[in-house]
Each structure stands twice: as C-alpha cells, then as structure tokens.
Write a structure and sequence with these properties.
3 domains; 295 residues; Arc Repressor Mutant, subunit A; elongated; D-Maltodextrin-Binding Protein, domain 2; alpha/beta
Length: 295
C-alpha cells in the first residue's frame, strides 16, 4: 500500500531542527550543511502548504501547526527506532544470534539460558528456531546448533555431543522389568517421528528382535511425540536429553531400561573458526559446550 508521506529526509530535518532549536545544530547531528537542512525544511513546508517554523534571529519557533505535527513525527521515528533495535539489535550492543532445532531450543536451551545470562549479563542473545538444518547464513546468525552426521560443508563443524535414544511413556504405561520387555513394547502403541534416522525399527534390530508392525500415530516433531506420550497416547523413542525435562517433572518415565546410541550427534557450525567470532559469541560457545559435556 503506498503511503502519502513526505521524504523521510525532510521529516528528519524538521524533527531535528525543532528539537535542537536551529538549523546549525540539526545539521551537525545529521552530518549535512545548515543550508541543506534549511532547504529540506522549506521543501517540507511547501509540500504541506503551511509554515512549520517562525524564523527568528538565530533561533526557530514552531508555529501552531508545527507544534501539532511534531509529536506525530517524533513518535513515528521512535517506533522505527524501537522496531529496528528489536529486530536487528543495537549497533553498539549486537546480540549473539544462534539457530537451533525447535525441540533443542524448547527442551534443552530455554531451561538453561538463565545460567548464561547470570554469567554474562552484558550479552544479549537472539534464538532463531528451525525445523530442519538449512544452509548457514552468517548475515542472519553467528552460530548454528545442528543435529546430524556432521558432513555439512557450509561452515566450520565442531562435534558437541552424542545422545542416547530411549523409549519413554506415560507413568501408567510403564513396562515391567522382565526379559520380555521387548515383546511387551512391540505390542504396545508406539509413536513414530517422521524423518528421523533412529527409528523403532533400528531400536528393535539393535537388540536382535523382530521388528513389529507400525501401530501408532506419526508426527513430524519430537515435541509432538513427547506431548502425545505424556498424554498416554503411546511410547515415544527420543533423545535422552530432550526427554529429561519430562522425566524430571514426572510426566514421563522410561518405558524400559534399554537404550541405543544415536547415529546422529549434535554439532556446532560457524561461518568461521570459533576464535574469529566476536568475544560474546565465543563466550556463548564455550558456555554451551561446557553445559552439554558437563550437565
């Protein structure tokens, strides 16, 4: 939608002149000449059809219409400034921007983020959630936390952690600890997460057990599988670190004592070596690595 607005440079000249009281000071702030400020204000007045200032000796006095118009212009520039800082950060205090999968962000990062803020209160963070690993764009974020096989070629890849895969369920669906637990698990309703490499098939084959037929809901997110399992819809096969908040809260229990090693791991991907990152980003990486390796 087109906006019926004067050029923003004219409005900036008007706002600065009104706030500072003369063209010379406004010119110093906006890094142009007083003549240019005067010209832009006159152009604005001509477009609006009304004078905005009374020009006295070495000073400016707003007309009644100028006084009415100024608060609206000031608010517009203030809103633009707030929105710019909110989205892109303060130029003097750039946030550390990192991306991670939704499940990792919700279940691992958010419960721990206060620890980092207490250690580094002067560092702002910006978390960008993603469903799947995409190409690293250093203009959008500094750090990418990925889950996969580590063969990406779009950045510097650093191993973080390999997490075991465990079956979990609602406390009422826990299986008895017997040698027949796999048979019981095979007969129970199971939730499948689409697109993952560590499936129920690989779990049962890992124990040399016949793979049972699929018999439960399919979802595309670990978070969905965990929530469904917590509501009693079946057993979910998930990374232990992501299930831990549910286990700690008593919403889920381990279906049995069995586990398998995941064929994928967590990796840190950066556009350049970690030592070349900004100090705040380096501190974030060091903290996260320490949290992952020494929980």
């Amino acid at each position: 939608m087109p906006y019926d607005l004067p050029p923003l440079s004219w409005l900036r000249a008007f706002e600065a002149s009104a706030r500072l009281g003369n063209f010379t000071r406004a010119a110093e702030e906006l890094l142009i000449t007083p003549a240019a400020i005067s010209y832009q204000v006159r152009q604005l007045e001509q477009q609006l059809g009304y004078p905005l200032f009374e020009r006295l000796h070495r000073t400016l006095v707003l007309t009644r219409l100028g006084q009415t118009y100024l608060p609206t212009v000031e608010k517009a520039f203030s809103d633009l400034s707030i929105a710019t800082v909110s989205v892109f950060g303060d130029r003097n205090r750039q946030p550390v921007r990192f991306r991670c999968l939704n499940s990792f962000g919700q279940l691992w990062m958010i419960p721990r983020i206060r620890r980092f803020q207490e250690l580094h209160p002067d560092v702002d963070l910006q978390m960008i959630s993603a469903s799947w690993a995409e190409t690293l764009n250093p203009e959008l974020f500094d750090i990418d936390i990925r889950f996969g096989d580590g063969t990406w070629t779009d950045g510097i890849v650093e191993f973080l952690q390999n997490d075991p895969i465990i079956p979990v369920c609602h406390p009422d669906l826990g299986l008895p600890a017997t040698k027949h637990d796999l048979e019981a698990l095979g007969a129970a309703p199971r939730l499948d997460i689409m697109g993952v490499i560590d499936t129920w098939e690989s779990f049962f084959r890992g124990y040399g057990h016949e793979v049972p037929s699929r018999n439960g809901l399919q979802v595309d997110q670990t978070l969905s599988a965990l929530e469904l399992a917590a509501l009693g819809h079946g057993h979910a096969l998930v990374l232990e670190s992501l299930a831990q908040p549910y286990l700690d809260a008593g919403r889920l229990v381990r279906s049995c004592d069995r586990r398998i090693n995941s064929r994928h791991s967590y990796y840190l991907v950066t556009s350049r070596p970690r030592k070349a990152l900004a100090p705040a980003a380096q501190n974030f990486c060091v903290w996260m690595i320490d949290e992952l390796r020494h929980p």
